[in-house]
Structures are given as C-alpha cells and as structure tokens.
Input
Amino acid sequence: MAENKTQKNNGSVAEFIASAEPSARREDLQQVVDMMHKITGLEPDMWGDSIIGFGSYAYRYESGRAAEWFLVGCSPRKQALTLYLMAGHERFPDLMRRLGKYKTGKACLYINKLADVNRDVLHELIAAAYHYMNDKYNNKA
Output
C-alpha cells in the first residue's frame, strides 16, 4: 500500500521557520508555533517539507490502510498562514464566531495575518482542537 507523502521527519523546525517569507509571515508563524508549544507541552516536528506538527495519532481509513498524522499543526503557505486543526473547526462554532477574519477548509484555518484574529480566541480554539484529538485517540503524548 502507498504511504502518506507527508510524514514526520528530522527536519529542523527552526531552520524552516527562519526560511519562511515574507518576514511578517515568518513572525506570525513563530508566534503560532510558540502558542501550540505552550498549549500542547510538546516539541514541534517537521512533517514533510512544509508543515510543523505537534504530537501524533494513528488512524485507519475505511479501506483499512493505517496512517499517522499530527494533532495540530501549521504552515506558512503562500496565500495564508495555515493552521491544521484536525478536530475540525465546525466543532467549535462559538469560538469561530469570535475569532475574526479567516477562511476555512475541511480541517484548515487560513489566516492572512495574526492581526486579523483575536489571539485569545485563537489560543482557545487551538487548545480545544488539540484536547479533542488527544482525548479521542487516547494519545499519551
């Protein structure tokens, strides 16, 4: 069976952050990484060549194929700072209403710049998503 293309690796998170452009995106990325570190108590890992993830969980597709993924993560994509909230943002409608300016994908939260969102609410949202996933998968991370 094919493996996931994006896997945890030994890449340097610090070097990746330092290479993020533009500088405003790099600064926002560092603040989100610091926030996720504080929330999870975990060290960040590189997943593939462009995602910073915290923790991990094993899951199984309906096809029976198993995979590993991070509990929460982020990436400085070209169009927006992308936060990966694997619990899904729809679980937290009150927080989403209070967050500020953003766009969403299935498990992605796209933020142009941190100044567009309420950081306290963002902190609550990341914490809620992390704890939901950690509890669901009984992760002892």
Notes: The CA atoms of residues 50 and 77 lie 8 Å apart. The longest strand covers residues 72-76. The chain has a mean pLDDT of 93. The helical segments are 13-19, 23-40, 93-99, 119-136.
